[in-house]
């Protein structure tokens, strides 16, 4: 397959003014009649024949201006329909096609999920519904007439407002939907089926009354209240924080069980993976509730950042995704705890994006080429894309950022925009030159910052030397310096932040925190009026997505774990300390030496546990040791996954040994009889309670098993149930089996609970986990056609169980690639994404590397793969 390149972008030769779709739904033979008004694009080269994208459909009819075309009058291939004689003028084109939703297991285009018809058009699914210029820079006004069996499909939905509906002969009925906002085809959606409906309303700040609807399977209505509330809060927040108001009379959400990703922001008709709608205290954890809130917000915010202002081409994906992630992160920070949210986002970035940026799949936030665009919905585009927006805000300042957003939205409303359009708006609002900053979009890899500080008692100055570099990534051997905001402070010996006076600045500033701007390979900053040697606090608020090395050590980390006024930096001090300890323990175990017990580290955690001034959710995060995958990345080469696991288990046990009684005390204190609420305070207390259980379970003894089993038996909410199972799953004790059997019974008939049952087993560090995962892949409740279940079992095994997945004999890798091979013809998007979990293979030792390379090579030579999986497999071992 030929890659598509950013540098080859040309504007569309033809535009589409309006589309009328007439859809006659039938499970295996759905008919679509598309009537389009097309005209040559005045901004493109003239004389180009009309070319439409289309695949996996049967073409039944083509007509131009009322005249049916013979087969000889058009060129039809597997992926396009060309009308060679149509090179100019405005025309009405009619195309009739037929497709088979029931047989569509790829879940793109029109498909059925549990009998419900639904569509997924981003990125290129519309071309499976009709022939069309299926690219984001062709914006058209859509009218859709849906017709279906009234008993099987009482609900008929599409984008926009419903303008007509009625009954027809033969038990059929219809509805007509009109969306007045021009949109690209990827935002088209329709849904039809027998669904229950929960309704509410929202009045916008200018007085528009919006009817809100959430459609779910019958019997699930009592799990929608939180989603509806989150939607209303999102609508209000976007008005308050960004001045963005909703623009239709209807906003509908549909929850379906088979979905390739989390959700989709189709105009006025969001479609969701039901996992991110359906929550009730006895079926969903605090984290599930928080995900619902965040994803509802994310999709809603796309109404402006994505829909009103869309992307010119798929290389600009970060323009809508990075910006919208930034907006949903801000929303969550305002709804919950800002520092806790920031730390959680940093953890996600480190767990997913940093390894991506350091491995074979590394690519810039704005990639320059792709074979299959679905492979670029990545942590880099989404999460690093959001970090880039956050850095921009730090550099230009809050006021200019808000002004820049206003310029961006108003100037590009109804347009397909580019990263340059976004940066131009910010540059105009701030008066700043952002040309160097733009490198963040084009240069892949996580920058390394090496910082050293030197105190001079004679002149009471503190000199900070900062060097930046970025290692080569695939296709980019040379890296230029980036424009990096580095937020920092200096802490005095009493634990108080010092005033900062930067040499060479005229203003007597004295603020206790500031953002330094790095632009060169190496820079020196001198602070004056520093009365005694300070402790350096860097990367406050995680001001840039970089890896940081400083000349501080154990003493500094301990001091900052106790005193840093910035929660992010305080948490990071604990993580750095734990990481260094774990590396030392790994080395000691490998050398046959007695490993350290981390006494001082455990003491610092003791202080965290007894400090009532700390937010419980923050304390819970302080208690978490860095994970095995993160350690493997940190070590960076020749990693022995078993040694890393042994080291982490050793330190975990040592901490549990030293804090045992205190953990039990805190655990008991944090028990509560209050009625369950998913709010951040209650959730934070549960997080700390369950962190105490998790750390205590490091002892692995009878007491720990009993404690977890008792919690499992007495829990009155899913957060506590899941936490008990997540503890028991690693144990080889009778309590484990009993709890899992009981949970399975409870989960019967509930796919979302069954998925928890699969994933809690797949994450087990027990030696028999691979064998169990293989058994579970044949279980009657497992299905290759349900992405949630595939991710729950195979995704969790490969992505969240490093010691078993990275088994030295390669068995974990072979399990993954065999599975991908089976799944690929059924659902290429999900298969390719699963294969991506192998992206860290190069940091492991030679036997593992050889086994990983072999498993991927075998996959490539075993037969024809989809373009999705082929692209990931070839990049993986290039
Ligand atoms: N914009 C959407 C991304 C998306 C997607 C969603 C569902 C299925 C397939 C998909 N391909 C791309 C979701 C979002 O980021 O909001
Ligand atoms: Zn999105």
TrEMBL record:
The lineage of its organism: Bacteria, Pseudomonadati, Pseudomonadota, Alphaproteobacteria, Hyphomicrobiales. Belongs to the peptidase M1 family. One of its GO terms (molecular function) is alanyl aminopeptidase activity. Keywords: Aminopeptidase, Hydrolase, Metal-binding, Metalloprotease, Protease, Zinc. It is an enzyme of class 3 (hydrolase). Residues 226-440 form the Peptidase M1 membrane alanine aminopeptidase domain. It comes from the Bacteria. Its EC number is 3.4.11.2. Residues 49-187 form the Aminopeptidase N-like N-terminal domain. One of its GO terms (biological process) is proteolysis. InterPro entries: Aminopeptidase_N-like_N, Aminopeptidase_N-like_N_sf, PepN_Ig-like_sf, Peptidase_M1, Peptidase_M1_dom, Peptidase_M1_pepN, Peptidase_M1_pepN_C, Peptidase_M1_pepN_C_sf. It catalyses: Release of an N-terminal amino acid, Xaa-|-Yaa- from a peptide, amide or arylamide. Xaa is preferably Ala, but may be most amino acids including Pro (slow action). When a terminal hydrophobic residue is followed by a prolyl residue, the two may be released as an intact Xaa-Pro dipeptide. Residues 555-877 form the Peptidase M1 alanyl aminopeptidase C-terminal domain. The keyword Zinc applies. This is Aminopeptidase N. Residues 445-550 form the Peptidase M1 alanyl aminopeptidase Ig-like fold domain. Its cofactor is Zn(2+). Transmembrane segments: none annotated.
